[in-house]
Design goal:
heteropentamer, A mainly alpha, B mainly alpha, C mainly alpha, D mainly alpha, E mainly alpha, E: mainly alpha
């Protein structure tokens, strides 16, 4: 189960990067970036998920005394939690820049923005 | 065409790297040292049932402060970028009216969504969820109102006040921890209480609620800034 | 007996999931795809409830709670976009 | 005994979900597919949630809340979507649909 | 019982991969954005399967509503201005 999810995450990163690098529309590039982002999250969570264990939340089902033997690693989960929120901030920032570029140029085609070419 | 070939080559190299990682990966049978410490002592030291919350708010609290700062910066930059973009596209087409059912339904549903957000971040130390999720849910209720009434005026000053106040009190609580307990953002300057009850785990619910309010205000301000990009007059 | 029934239910839900997914990929118009998207989210709620049942952890239901209350926002956004409302 | 009834209801709800999926494939046009996707699937989900509530009575409160939320939100999204599909045009098969009250009302309102 | 969870994981993973390929290959931008939203919804179920309900809740709260809204909002503004980008 863990291996399957990890493989999926890796393939999602590759697919997302392919989309971000080959598309010419700025919005489509951001979509590819979002997919790669999700892939990274899945890989990180899969690294922390030990097979046959349960969520790191202690209640009647998992008393604190048994926690060591029964819970998964909580640290990657905490990292991914913050990464998702930052990811939304970054996506919103990219979209705001794309919108500004569109207002200035009237196009979203990356090939028509030639200032940085040499 | 040559560019696409280059991209495929790059991805092939990256894929080979991933394949090597994947084949060499052996899942651990036991928790590593840090995680084992958190699992063994987290509940007793901090009184939080949700270990992810314990890590985010207390053990790695400084990282969270940095993260909230990054989010604040992103929001501010979005506000700056879009504030100069008010003069917009000329051929603004007329918006379709909102159906009455959506207006009524959104008025009915926005309070429960807000309530769910508050529930999620107040119970962050007991059940899954916490400030970041609760903040996103609060922003979702603002999004629903925005969808139902696109021309509604959201109070920018209210959002800014909530964000600034919760941010300052968050840092202040961290300093309280420094003075009255073990270190910056230590939650033990309030009594730990009984494990598993709502008012337990010291200052964790308080700190996480403040983070929730701050994140919710930040996301709402992003949404409001984006939706205010056209100021062309609308037909009623 | 009960285990078998749960297995049967999981299989049926999986088949429903696959059917809705087929409509999502095929769907001639954009509205078709959005209907499939809506169905997929609701089928996922049942999926999460089943996972909670199989893992014996009631706290997983909180995720389904958030799912049930927020997944319709995406559908409404897309519908408003389609009718030129955004 | 409640466990058995609960699991039977679970299977019943799953059958409704399956029927909703089949309807999504077999129905001729968008509006009919919205019927299948909204009604049958909502009913199926309610059944499965009630079944699980019978199997685990201590989870009943949360499950009822989930069911309530689905009852509130799903009709709303289905209605907004149907309206958008109607406005886009081509939502119905003209041979099968003879009455279109929304178009009549819109025409009346514009006069 | 483990077999069911494995089956669900496999189903979700295959669905995510196919959806990702669709999102990259499809011609119309709105459908690509819709597919990206579907990926994050499916990912949140995968997170529940991987015993990470906190992460799943974050992904469900952010991936479904907020991201989709931001994308479609910019897309609607772009469609109002010109022809490229917004056709269905």
């Amino acid at each position: 189960m863990t291996t399957l999810a990890m493989t999926t995450g890796f393939v999602l990163i590759l697919i997302g990067l392919y989309g971000a690098l080959t598309n010419r529309n700025l919005l489509r590039m951001i979509v590819g970036f979002t997919i790669a982002d999700t892939g990274v999250h899945i890989v990180l969570v899969a690294v922390g998920a030990l097979p046959g264990r349960t969520a790191p939340i202690l209640d009647a089902a998992v008393p604190p005394a048994e926690a060591l033997a029964r819970i998964v690693d909580p640290i990657p989960q905490a990292l991914v939690l913050t990464a998702i929120v930052i990811g939304l901030g970054v996506t919103a920032l990219m979209l705001a820049y794309a919108y500004r570029l569109f207002v200035r140029r009237g196009t979203l085609d990356i090939a028509k923005m030639t200032e940085l070419k040499w | 065409m040559i560019r696409r070939l280059f991209v495929v080559l790059l991805l092939a190299v990256l894929g080979g790297l991933f394949l090597a990682l994947q084949l060499g990966y052996v899942p651990d049978a036991q928790l590593n040292q840090t995680a084992a410490y958190y699992a063994e002592h987290g509940a007793g030291e901090l009184g939080a049932a949700n270990l992810v919350t314990a890590i985010i708010v207390t053990y790695r609290g400084l990282d969270t402060l940095g993260e909230v700062t990054v989010l604040f910066l992103a929001t501010t930059i979005i506000g700056l970028v879009l504030a100069t973009g008010r003069a917009t596209i000329s051929s603004e087409s007329r918006r379709t009216q909102v159906s009455e059912l959506l207006t009524t339904g959104s008025r009915l549903l926005a309070p429960p969504i807000m309530l769910l957000g508050v529930y999620v971040f107040i119970n962050g130390h007991l059940t899954p969820g916490g400030g970041f999720q609760g903040g996103a849910i609060l922003a979702s209720s603002a999004l629903l109102l925005l969808l139902a009434e696109p021309l509604r005026d959201f109070s920018h000053s209210l959002i800014a006040t909530v964000e600034a106040l919760s941010g300052s009190i968050y840092v202040l609580l961290g300093l309280f921890g420094l003075v009255f307990a073990g270190g910056f953002l230590d939650n033990r300057f309030l009594p730990l209480g009984t494990f598993g009850e709502l008012f337990s785990a010291g200052a964790i619910p308080l700190i996480y609620s403040l983070i929730g309010l701050k994140v919710g205000a930040e996301f709402s301000s992003v949404l409001v800034h984006l939706s205010a990009t056209d100021t062309t007059e609308e037909q009623p | 007996m009960i285990d078998l029934l749960i297995l049967l239910a999981a299989l049926l839900v999986s088949v429903a999931f696959v059917l809705a997914l087929y409509r999502f990929f095929k769907g001639p118009s954009a509205a078709d795809r959005v209907v499939a998207f809506d169905t997929l989210t609701i089928v996922s709620i049942t999926g999460i409830a089943l996972i909670a049942l199989l893992n014996e952890r009631g706290i997983y239901l909180d995720v389904a709670l958030v799912y049930a209350l927020l997944s319709f926002l995406g559908v409404i956004t897309i519908a408003r976009y389609l009718e030129n409302g955004l | 005994m409640p466990e058995l009834i609960g699991s039977l209801m679970l299977v019943g709800g799953a059958v409704f979900l399956l029927l909703g999926g089949v309807g999504l494939i077999r129905m001729p046009d968008v509006l009919n597919r919205i019927q299948a996707g909204a009604k049958a699937v909502t009913l199926g989900t309610l059944f499965t949630l009630i079944g699980i509530a019978l199997m685990r009575p201590e989870w009943a409160l949360k499950l009822v809340l989930i069911a309530l939320f689905i009852l509130f939100t799903n009709p709303l999204s289905a209605q907004v979507l149907a309206r958008a599909a109607h406005r886009l045009g081509g939502a119905t098969d003209a041979k099968l649909t003879t009455v279109d009250r929304l178009a009549e009302d819109t025409a009346k309102a514009q006069q | 019982m483990n077999a069911i969870l494995l089956l669900l994981t496999a189903l979700l993973c295959v669905a995510m991969l196919v959806t990702a390929v669709t999102a990259i290959m499809v011609n119309s931008t709105p459908i690509a954005i819709l597919a990206a939203g579907l990926i994050s919804l499916l990912a949140s179920v995968v997170f529940v399967l991987l015993a990470a309900p906190d992460v799943a809740m974050t992904e469900a709260a952010i991936g479904s509503g907020l991201t989709t809204f931001l994308f479609f909002f910019v897309l609607a503004r772009v469609r109002a201005g010109s022809e490229d980008g917004g056709e269905l």
